[in-house]
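#lab-general

N.A. 3:47 PM
ok so I finally got the sequence cleaned up, no stray characters, all 336 residues accounted for. can someone with queue access submit it? mine expired

B.Y. 3:52 PM
send it over

N.A. 3:53 PM
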Amino acid sequence: MENISSPDYSNKSCDHPMNYCENNRTDANETATTEQYFHPDFYVLLPVIYSVICAVGLTGNTAVIYVILKAPKMKTVTNMFILNLAIADDLFTLVLPINIAEHLLHYWPFGEVLCKVILSIDHYNIFSSIYFLTVMSIDRYLVVLATVQSKTMPHRTYRAAKIVSLCVWILVILIVLPFTVFARVFTITDDLDRKSCVLSFPSSESFWFKASRIYTLILGFVIPVSTICILYTMMLYKLRNMRLNSNAKALDKAKKKVTIMVFIVLAVCLFCWTPFHLSTVVALTTDLQTTPLVIGISYFITSLSYANSCLNPFLYAFLDDSFRKAFKKMLECRPA
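B.Y. 4:20 PM
back already:
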């Protein structure tokens, strides 16, 4: 993700989503000016926020992975998608300390290979969450439709969910591949010759920058969110207008709870990610000046998108009785 991981706003391509920059190459004087926008304590606060997100995200998502893999009753189709969602969030929180280190050091000390890995995982975080939620929404729609029509779903199996999850990962890897190619370590020409891990586009940089933003917006937001909205609209329409027979007067309690949980997880994801993608529209359609307000808003937007990686485990704990019981049982068994 075009994350904010250094106070040098001008040394990272689109470091904050509302700011426009070409190929990360700007005057060092602009960097110095930008660094004076905020009190130094502000730059200490950001690593603290990122560290909390990292600690909570790692703990929560690791617990989700552990429970789903260890508890036999948790091996369901929906939980397979939740497992992959937790793996994607865990993967992102695992590399967040490197972003924190770069923020504190004000330069990139980790080499080009790790630069490509980190920027790739940052972008996996943009696409993987929404794609797995799209798959979960498709699954919910099919379950509701089958229940309404009193049909069985013989092909909806745990094994099939594994195959679909693998296909999602392959798709996300292919989507992120261009960012992996363009990621590299760039040396900023100033008194310190600092290195920065950036997306370095060929000329013309302006075209490639806009193309990458549109690419991310369409594939990471417009297409999946439109699909989800259509699915839920159709789901509500069918539930409202189709006359259910005596065996399917309504979704049973368990299916209702799962559907509600998926909907709430989706809503939280959209709440966290919509400002990020809206800022892309702003970056593409306006010429915002780098002001303290713009920088502050962009930091907030990035932190909000990061926070999504640690919120889902709490939603599962509050909304899913089976997850809560399985986790409690694991804790009870552990001392023994």
